[in-house]
Amino acid sequence: MDQTKTPYEAIGGAKTVRAIVEAFYPRVQAHPLLKPIFPEDITPVMEKQRLFLTQFLGGPPLYSEKYGHPMLRARHLPFPITPARAEAWLACMSEALNEAGVQGEVRDSLWARLVMAAHHMVNTEDQ
What positions does the entry give for heme binding (predicted)? Predict the structure, then answer.
């Protein structure tokens, strides 16, 4: 990965972030483990994810400007996130990254961060 570019720049910026989000959420809505913890109207969630991923990848701090510090774990505590749901989320995200054409070193680096974040959100055991 070009060390002079942020991951945001390396994947293609806003266009690619939007493609990831648009590929990801239909998968979430179709997944039997994930669908129950997401609202019927997914549009506001998609917008928050777009803002968050932009910032998470080193782009403009859009999420913080609108909502304050991401506080990921705290914001996800109201939802029962099990290890199985974290893995389901990651599976959907992997497919979305594939669909958006994110590959190579930048994908590997991003993936490591997403895996850590997904597992950090777990707050409930599988039943």
Answer: 119
Q: At what angle do helices 104-120 and 83-100 cross, to 10 degrees?
A: 160
**How far apart are alpha carbons 114 and 104 in whole angstroms?**
15
Distance (Å, whole) CA 114 – CA 23: 16
pTM tops 0.85, yes or no:
yes
Calpha distance 44→57 (Å, rounded): 20
pLDDT tens-digit readout, 31-84: 999 999 999 999 999 999 999 999 999 999 999 999 999 999 999 999 999 999
95 vs 88: CA distance, rounded Å: 11
Residue 76 annotated in ligand binding: no
Taking the C-alpha atoms of residue 70 and residue 64, their distance in angstroms, rounded to an integer, is 6
